[in-house]
Amino acid sequence: MNIFILIAFILINAELLKIHEEVKESFEGNNGWTIKNGKVQKEFCNSKIVFGGFEGQTIMSKLLIVPKHSYIKLSLDIVSQHQRGLVNIYLDHIEIQSVYVQQKCSENDYYVSTITSEFNHTGASIILVINGYAEEQDYKWGFKNLEISIQHCPQSCQVCDQGDIVEQCQIWKSFQNSWTATHKNLMGQDGWVSINGISGSSKCGGVPLIGGYQKFGQNQGLSKIIKLQPHYKLRLLVLWAKIDSWDNEYGLILFDGIQVWNQSFNLDNGYQIKVCGNSEPKYHTLFRRVDITVDHTGDQVKIDFLSTLDQGSDDESFGLRDLQIFYASCPDQCDMCRGPSSNDCIRCSNNLFQSMQGCNPLPYFYLLQSNFHYDKFTSSEGWILKQSQQSTIITDCQDKTIFGGYGVLGVGGIAEKQFFIPHHSQLRLQITLYKIDSWDGEIIIIEIDDEMIWDSSQYQYNEGNLCGTDYPDKLIYLDLIIRHEKQNTLLRIRSNLDENSDNESWGFRDFSLMYDVSNIVEIEDAFEYLLSLGILIIISFI
Ligand SMILES: *[C@@H]1O[C@H](CO)[C@@H](O)[C@H](O)[C@H]1NC(C)=O
Ligand SMILES: *[C@@H]1O[C@H](CO)[C@@H](O)[C@H](O)[C@H]1NC(C)=O
Ligand SMILES: *[C@@H]1O[C@H](CO)[C@@H](O)[C@H](O)[C@H]1NC(C)=O
Q1: Which of 152, 179, 194 is the last residue of a domain?
Q2: Closest CA to 30 of 56, 70, 58
Q3: Signal peptide: which range, if any (predicted)?
């Protein structure tokens, strides 16, 4: 028989599905293993063929693509000259230490130890690493009967945790899958931008990576701004490969400039024998599987993969693969939310109005003006800035433009626009406000005809480091209804900031002004409708 690798889909019990099994004899292409410091040789134990001939310092690695799962069972027989095996087995970063059932092989002095282990696991692949750790040069080992079984995610789930029922895991919707290739040459960046220039893939043992040795060192990594469906949580899975002489430096993942994962690594974190990197054998390699869930809302996210490394990529480096990103979506009719139910909505879709009960239509408002809704608008649309600190009035914030912003609106800065509004008794105002950099207790104020109608003193915010300097910035989504009758009206937005706009600043976008129609009879109904919602002025905030 000439088939060594048999990928068999056999149900071994109600729960676990066998996905991989190495059983037969040809050792063609080393059965997909990448082997260092050793060579394959056919051996026998109890008349079964052993994938063997490995030595004290042999290390082998292999990547296996696996279906969606939450749990893994692995078993194999180690055949070696020593009772205790002197072999380490890893699945990703997890060392497999488990039940040994020992026997002697009938035809030689070798021992055979059966090892089985089960654990929670998620991700698009698994990486197996096996190494010998004997001092003696002529120490020999091998293995047979490698079997891997998984527990599938419930149908209709795209990612899951052990024990999840459909209702728990189907909240996660997949929207990014990158760096999953099984061959280095097929590993593309998938639109991710290399920070400081170095792009491309590499191979670490049997594992193709984006970045890696001589690619991602000091100040290098990957970044991308991703547009998103309305959501309240993000879940990110990735494989992080730590390579060479990390000395308590951190691997970092940032969402909107804010750390959502960090892990420090040392040069000796990893497998006992190095898998890839430079020539120094002391610097170990580790394939760390990451699975994080983060509260997040907004219509985009900027993700950075970075490190605190301070040396070049031939001395310390990292690589990535198997990126999967999932989101938990907002309720229907909701563009922005902090949870799954209708009263978790922060900003309703289709101009619905947000109240305690969720998103409801307000039939009696007409749109007067809508400004700054394009991602990259260029016109000031009749707004004027006073006491701005630059001739520029539109600035970039993440990959959108805002009116005002960093370096423009700081101490004393004012934005104003004059409106002529048909007969009305109420106004509805929508706006997205940005508080940028080091605000310390100051507020944004909105005035109509010199009268304050709203200020930001009571509001919590959605935070991220969006623009300006390194301080976290704050976003406020406002949807406000006020009683108002005057037709010729001045709308003013200002702040009580006390520092320059390069230290603390503000700006806005997504402005709409609507009015009700007072001279039609339904106004009474509209009013009652609002009262029935329990509140007349409702402000949407995070
Ligand atoms: C496996 O996952 C389940 C639920 O997801 C958790 O309760 C359990 O503690 C995990 N087991 C281990 C060993 O981490
Ligand atoms: C890593 O994360 C912890 C906990 O979130 C934080 O306290 C620490 O400052 C972070 N370390 C680095 C180097 O950013
Ligand atoms: C910027 O703001 C911070 C915090 O309010 C303050 O400590 C610092 O002195 C300010 N810097 C300048 C240049 O105004």
Answers
A1: 152
A2: 58
A3: 1-16
Residues in the chain: 542
Q: What is the per-residue pLDDT across 492-519, written as a single tens digit (0 to 9) for each?
A: 999 999 999 999 999 999 999 999 975 5
Query: What CATH number did the domain enclosing 493 receive?
Result: 2.60.120
Residue 340 located in a structural domain? no
Three-state SS annotation for 428-492: EEEEEEEEEECCCCCCEEEEECCEEEEEHHHCCCEEECCCCCCCCEEEEEEEEEEECCCCEEEEE
Cα dist from 299 to 133, 226, 324, whole Å: 51, 9, 18
Same domain, 221 and 78: no
Cβ of 262 below 6 Å from ligand 2:
yes
pLDDT digits 0-9 by tens, 7-66: 333 333 336 787 777 755 667 788 889 999 999 998 899 888 999 999 999 999 999 999
- Between CA 87 and CA 77 the distance in angstroms is 11
Among all ligands shown, which has an atom nearest to the Cα of 294? 2
- The verdict on residue 47 lying in a domain is yes
Its domain, for residue 492, covers 362-520
- Ligand nearest the Cα of residue 438 is 3
Task: Tell whether 197 and 48 lie within a shared domain.
Answer: no
Q: How far apart are CA 404 and CA 320, in angstroms?
A: 38
| C-alpha span between 493 and 417 (Å, rounded) | 9
Minimum CA distance residue for ligand 2 atom 3: 262
Ligand with minimal distance to 259 CA:
2
**Same domain assignment for residues 186 and 137:** no
Residue 400 backbone phi and psi in degrees, to 5: -120, 165
Atom of ligand 3 nearest to the CA of 503: 1
Is the pTM here over 0.85, yes or no?
A: no
Q: Does 121 share its domain with 81?
A: yes
- 183-230 tens-digit pLDDT: 999 999 999 999 998 889 999 999 999 999 999 999 999 999 999 999
Identify whether residues 137 and 230 lie together within a single domain: no
**For residue 527, what is the enclosing H or E element?**
helix 523-532
Which are the contacts of 331, defined by CB distance < 8 A and separation ≥ 6? 337, 340, 341, 342, 344, 345, 358
* CATH number of the domain that residue 103 is part of: 2.60.120.260
Question: Is position 538 within any domain?
Answer: no
| Residue identifier of the C-alpha nearest atom 14 of ligand 1 | 120
163: Cβ below 6 Å to ligand 1? yes
Phi, psi for residue 347 in degrees, rounded to 5: -140, 120
- Predicted confidence (pLDDT) at residue 535 exceeds the cutoff of 50: no
pLDDT category at 6 given cuts 50, 70, 90 is very low
Instruction: Tell whether ligand 2 has an atom less than 6 A from the beta carbon of residue 259.
Output: yes
pLDDT band at 343; cut points 50, 70, 90: confident
Number of domains in the chain: 3
